[in-house]
Design a protein that fits this description.
eight-stranded mixed sheet; single chain; 13 strands; 320 residues; 20% helix; 21% strand; globular; Sulfite Oxidase, Chain A, domain 2; binds ligand MTE; alpha+beta
């Protein structure tokens, strides 16, 4: 990969699948011809539909893995987003009904400066970075995804949490008119996730606004989600509308629904099996076929050097 060493800006052709790259060139040609198309400004002016796929300007973060990203087709076509159905293809098929403008995120609770952020303010709050992260789903598959966003800590410091803010709760959208999956009792809605405040403040925890150099596709949690790469994927809540700073450990969706299977921490840990299957190995989507041996899952999904100290002294078998 070639890189401009002074600015660390990566060219779209280096990170982007050919199809997206071609689309972008068409956008640039249209722009050169005086057609305002594809920019965030254009998206915002349309009110209701910032097209998933508005280009974002990013620099590549040094926190990125050098592993090969999973294809755009797999990242956006093989998803878990139960608000749109429980099959892996359902979110790509049904999430077009999600309205992502107007959109606000209320940041509240034990903070000195609570604030309702408009999504377009969040897009400009801090410099956007591309963070290529390994992602491991609790079901035993993994991907490598070039996310776009900035550390959640950038948002956290602006609201000034108080000393008694020990945890952060993430509440996601639950609107029956937009989300057909809400008619199913598979989970209690809204989908809620949570982190300890030091986990939320860790530099790897990403307030995520895009992937593959563009705003988030709806099936991946548009317009804003969190991504916590050392935890199983379900900790990374999609389409967030409220972030609450609280004193007590939040009740999270999967922990509430099956507490013996899904703990609050849910750190990727090959030594602690799910009660119904091993977590020692994983299948990389798009690379490992059903006949290839699965690859070994790494402690904290390979991010142990960064995050193991957060859990010093804890029994990770009990606090799983
Ligand atoms: N967030 C919401 N609101 N609803 C969900 O069903 N699924 C989780 C997580 N966030 C989920 C969610 C699970 S199980 C995973 S593995 C990841 O999103 C998948 O993210 P991706 O589809 O962008 O890869």
């Amino acid at each position: 990969m070639s890189r401009n060493s002074s600015t660390q800006v990566i060219r779209p052709s280096e990170i982007t699948p050919q199809r997206v790259f071609e689309k972008r060139r068409a956008i640039l040609r249209a722009a050169a011809a005086g057609v305002a198309y594809g920019s965030l400004e254009w998206a915002n002016a349309q009110g209701s539909a910032a097209p998933a796929g508005s280009k974002l300007v990013t620099a590549r973060s040094t926190l990125s893995t050098m592993e090969r990203p999973t294809s755009h087709a797999d990242v956006t076509g093989y998803n878990n987003f139960y608000e749109f159905g429980t099959d892996k293809e359902d979110p790509a098929r049904h999430a077009h009904t999600l309205r992502i403008r107007p959109w606000t995120v209320a940041v509240e609770g034990e903070v000195n400066r609570p604030k309702v952020f408009d999504i377009d303010e969040l897009l400009r709050l801090a410099p956007l970075e591309e963070r290529v992260y390994r992602m491991r789903c609790v079901e035993g598959w993994s991907m490598v995804i070039p996310w776009v966003g900035y550390s959640l800590s950038e948002l956290i410091r602006r609201v000034e949490p108080r000393g008694n803010a020990k945890y952060v709760e993430f509440v996601t959208l639950a609107d029956r008119r937009q989300m057909p999956g809400l008619s199913s009792p598979v989970l209690e809605w809204p989908y809620v996730e949570g982190l300890r405040i030091d986990e939320a403040n860790h530099r790897l925890t990403l307030l995520t606004l895009g992937l593959y150099g563009e705003t988030l596709p709806k099936q991946n949690g548009a317009p804003v989600r969190v991504v916590v790469p050392w935890k199983y994927g379900f900790k990374s809540g999609k389409s967030i509308v409220r972030i609450r700073f609280v004193e007590k450990q939040p009740v999270t969706s999967w922990n509430r629904s099956a507490p013996y299977e899904y703990g609050f921490y849910s750190n990727v840990n090959p030594e602690v099996d799910h009660p119904r299957w091993s977590q020692a190995r994983e299948r990389r989507i798009g690379e490992d076929g059903f006949l290839t041996p699965k690859r070994a899952t790494l402690m904290f999904n390979g991010y142990a050097d960064e995050v193991a100290s957060l859990y010093a002294g804890m029994d990770l078998r009990k606090q799983f």
